[in-house]
Write a structure and sequence with these properties.
Length: 88
């Protein structure tokens, strides 16, 4: 890790933003998430451990995603807009 990355990870107020596509047996979701890089990593690892397929996408993938429901969640230094499509 270079010095810039070390500074980012040490700064508890730093916010990283990303779009993720997450798929499991029941649903497909696209997440617009923002939070500290450690929190984002923790979230991604939890999804993978629970059997989800996770891939990075972009704003076009988020904006054009066909979804059944949309929710906004705010947790301790982590904000998510989640678009979910349930599988029948």
């Amino acid at each position: 890790m270079d010095k810039t990355q070390q500074k980012i990870m040490a700064d508890e107020n730093y916010v990283q933003h990303m779009f993720l596509r997450v798929v499991n047996d029941d649903m497909e979701c696209v997440l617009n998430i923002a939070g500290h890089p450690y929190r984002l990593r923790e979230l991604i690892f939890m999804m993978i451990e629970n059997g989800c397929s996770v891939e990075k996408t972009d704003s076009d993938g988020f904006n054009t995603f066909d979804y059944d429901e949309e929710t906004v969640e705010v947790h301790d230094f982590l904000t998510s807009i989640i678009k979910a499509k349930h599988r029948q």
